[in-house]
What we know:
- By secondary structure, the chain is of the alpha/beta class.
- Helix content is 41%, strand content 17%.
- It has a seven-stranded mixed sheet, with helices on both faces.
- The site of 6-O-phosphono-beta-D-fructofuranose has 12 residues, from loops.
Amino acid sequence: xxxxxxxxxxxxxxxxxxxxxxxxxxxxxxxxxxxxxxxxxxxxxxxxxxxxxxxxxxxxxxxxxxxxxxxxxxxxxxxxxxxxxxxxxxxxxxxxxxxxxxxxxxxxxxxxxxxxxxxxxxxxxxxxxxxxxxxxxxxxxxxxxxxxxxxxxxxxxxxxxxxxxxxxxxxxxxxxxxxxxxxxxxxxxxxxxxxxxxxxxxxxxxxxxxxxxxxxxxxxxxxxxxxxxxxxxxxxxxxxxxxxxxxxxxxxxxxxxxxxxxxxxxxxxxxxxxxxxxxxxxxxxxxxxxxxxxxxxxxxxxxxxxxxxxxxxxxxxxxxxxxxxxxxxxxxxxxxxxxxxxxx
Length: 344
Ligand code: F6P
């Protein structure tokens, strides 16, 4: 009888999950394993819900956004007894290994299951936020930023026609990578990221200068930027099962737009790209990256490298300890702050 690998995808979906599942299934079958899909992330492992997976089933999913396995933000460590349920499902399904595809939260759970229960677990790095350590990139990021860049360019057209300041709010949670790459690629005049409190005087000056030159300006902001003037009541924040603040109602783009309009007297509009940047077909880069980390995960299973995550490190696909990838986020650093000074 063939040994069985369970595959799950957890946390926010992103383009690249399907190619990664496919890569893992193709690799696993090549090495003599069979695969089964655990549906809806850790929730599926708690509840024991599965779906079949094979080379035939996954053949044409490489071009599809989202995840064919479904996902959730369920944290089994949040409810007493749920970790035991995960371990029981692993046993009941007769799994030899579990491949968990996700970001810091999903892989944080995988890290603990390996550390505390020596579960045969392998991680695969995904997230549009690109904030996982020890991998150069996570799949989902390239597609999301490409979409955000296109949205920013569209805003430039209408902003230039109406002689307005346009503000685009993008996702990315606690890391400013999405805002930063979008701003650079769309020739923004100012970018706001959570790693650096907005210097309002500097921002207003740069916008006024840009407007004086070309009669429009573009600002890209992360959903999690801090505007001192926004006057938020932080005690009212809703959080998810991993303790992350839910940012969707925060309206940072709108706060920044009204601040700019008040300070400059220039008509200003804001737009939020939201979940649109997380759906749709993966870019070529994400299809390749996801396929390769999926294949590498199957290789790590074959080699019994439990507690490892497949990663892209300087053009090579390697295994790295899961615990080095989770716990601390990879955020925008000083090197990039210096570049921002040059570019914006
Ligand atoms: O972590 C990915 C992400 O898209 C973040 O950028 C964003 O803050 C969050 O998920 C949104 O989560 P949800 O889809 O649960 O609203």
